[in-house]
Amino acid sequence: MPGPHTPLTVKDYDDAILYLAECVVAHGARFSPILEKLIAGRDALVQRPDPIERARAIIEAARNRSFSDPIS
Questions:
Q1: Residue from 47, 51, 58, 55 nearest 13 by CA
Q2: Helix residue spans in the chain (DSSP H)
Q3: DSSP 49
Q4: 63 C-beta neighbours (distance < 10 Å), count
Q5: 12-21, Cβ contacts within 8 angstroms, sequence gap of 24 or more
Q6: H/E segment holding residue 71
Q7: CA–CA separation, 50 and 26 (whole Å)
């Protein structure tokens, strides 16, 4: 498991989801809300854009703006 300041990875979510799925099967639906929240968290993490690609897009947009703006 990750340390106290380590961000959760998709694998961490998958491991927790598997564990809770086993709890739901073994002990009933009382663990279902937690399972649903973990699945939603994992899905949000997967859909989040890559931070490096986002940074490159920001830099590219800034370069395009500076080339199109006339020099004062």
A1: 47
A2: 10-27, 32-47, 51-68
A3: P
A4: 10
A5: 13/38, 13/41, 13/42, 13/45, 14/42, 17/42
A6: none
A7: 37
CA–CA separation, 67 vs 61, rounded Å? 10
Query: How far is the C-alpha of 33 from the C-alpha of 20, rounded, in Å?
Result: 10
Which residues make Cβ contacts (< 8 Å) with residue 29, sequence separation at least 6? none
What are the tens digits of pLDDT across the range 20-44?
Answer: 999 999 999 998 999 999 999 999 9
Average pLDDT, the chain: 87
pTM of the model: 0.63
Q: Is the Cβ–Cβ distance between 8 and 33 less than 8 Å? A: no
